[in-house]
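Practice problem 4.
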């Protein structure tokens, strides 16, 4: 098997698993217990909180553990909306946000909020001028993702944060794809809230966190117990939290070397695809993109058939976000960067990790060189195109 869907989930690191194991089998106490047996679970959670915070230059007390990126995004938007609705009811997001943000914004619209959706350019970047022009006296929050989960484009976070701070507006970033993969600094980038999920950087599934800058008011998203400093109810997922902390520490330690190594394989993939397969389009910013992201559209084919033929060869890939894999509609991200439906339908996302080898990349390109002509031979659009060329 060649696994190239790391944007959907990464493999749990063995060392991370071994760190988690005692909290599943031996130190299984509920961290809410008052007895000494529970103290070790409490200490483990606080260690993980510090590990997660260190990666982004935050304080441990500013980290609140959640079930993952979707909950963190929902909590950020809806919790801020409840806390600051007396100031105003206006929110700014981008057109290429993850559905956890897009649908949360839609939910707020049903509650009387106004949502401005900023367009992006052909590379998937927001316009700083358009952002500043969109801010109003009643704007409460700007939510712009750090890096896109489909096309890999990295946003100019420092400039976005500076604009938000200048106008007294809170800034949230969905950093689910970026955290642990590229440098992030919440102070330098003026980030007030940040979402992350452990399974995107070799941690376990079902656990993430929301960073909340000290002084930012955020109302609880769920009612229940007093866990997470009375901000997030629910029994603490001790093994998951321990795994998140261990994975975060590992990712920070190896970030520079991983960025360099993965980028080399990524660039090799892109170069071979562009040079050896005709009628393709690489999506996303050429340089300001995640190290492990390759997103390409092959004209005149349907992406679903391409994924099936890749799977038959033992290659795991996707056409976009894992959260929309059951949809037959073209990606909202690709449409937002200006691609027509017929081209957007032929998209392929290859997402790499430090475990992806150059040999893996070559095998994928060799497979695509067989698959794409086969699919185009069955495409009436391609036949029409060839006839027009003649």
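Answer key:
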């Amino acid at each position: 098997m060649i696994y190239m869907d790391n944007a959907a989930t990464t493999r749990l690191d063995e060392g991370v698993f071994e760190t988690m194991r005692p909290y599943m089998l031996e130190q299984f106490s509920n961290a809410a217990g008052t007895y000494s047996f529970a103290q070790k679970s409490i200490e483990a959670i606080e260690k993980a909180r510090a590990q997660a915070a260190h990666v982004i230059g935050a304080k441990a007390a500013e980290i609140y553990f959640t079930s993952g990126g979707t909950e963190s995004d929902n909590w950020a938007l809806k919790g801020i909306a409840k806390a600051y609705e007396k100031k105003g009811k206006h929110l700014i997001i981008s057109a290429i946000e993850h559905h956890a943000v897009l649908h949360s914004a839609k939910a707020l619209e049903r509650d009387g909020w106004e949502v401005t959706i900023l367009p992006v350019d052909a590379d998937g970047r927001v316009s700083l001028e358009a952002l500043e022009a969109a801010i109003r006296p009643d704007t409460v929050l700007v939510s712009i993702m750090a890096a896109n989960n489909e096309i890999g484009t990295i946003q100019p976070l420092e400039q976005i944060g500076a604009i938000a701070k200048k106008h007294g507006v809170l800034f949230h970033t969905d950093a689910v794809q970026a955290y642990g993969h590229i440098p992030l600094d919440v102070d330098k980038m003026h980030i007030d809230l940040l979402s992350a999920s452990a399974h995107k950087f070799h941690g376990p599934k079902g656990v993430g966190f929301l960073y909340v800058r000290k002084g930012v008011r955020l109302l609880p998203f769920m009612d229940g117990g007093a866990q997470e400093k009375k901000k997030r109810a629910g029994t603490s997922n001790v093994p998951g939290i321990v795994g998140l902390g261990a994975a975060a520490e590992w990712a920070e330690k190896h970030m520079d070397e991983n960025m360099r190594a993965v980028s080399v394989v990524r660039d090799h993939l892109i170069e071979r695809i562009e040079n050896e397969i005709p009628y393709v389009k690489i999506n996303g910013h050429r340089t300001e993109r995640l190290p492990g992201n390759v997103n390409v559209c092959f004209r005149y084919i349907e992406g679903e058939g391409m994924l099936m033929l890749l799977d038959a060869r033992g290659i795991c890939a996707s056409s976009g976000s894992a959260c929309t894999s059951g949809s037959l509609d073209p990606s909202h991200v690709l449409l937002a960067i200006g691609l027509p439906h017929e081209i957007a339908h032929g998209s392929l996302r290859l997402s790499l990790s430090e475990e992806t080898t150059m040999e893996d990349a070559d095998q994928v390109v060799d497979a695509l060189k067989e698959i794409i002509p086969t699919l185009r031979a069955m495409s009436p659009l391609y036949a029409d195109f060839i006839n027009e060329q003649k």
